[in-house]
Amino acid sequence: MGRGHWLNFFMRRTKDDTNNYTKEELIALLDKSNIPKHVAIIMDGNGRWAKKRGLPRLAGHRAGIEPIRRVVRIAQELGIKHITLYAFSTENWKRSNEEVSGLMKILQEFLGKEALKLHEKNVKITTIGQIDRLPNFAYQELQKSMTLTENNNSLTLNLALNYGGRDEIIKAAKKLAKDIQTEQIKVDDINDELFAKYLFTEHLPDPELLIRTSGELRLSNFLLWQVAYTEFWVTSTYWPDFQQTDFLRAILAYQKRDRRFGGVNL
Question: Is 188 a catalytic residue?
Answer without folding.
Answer: no
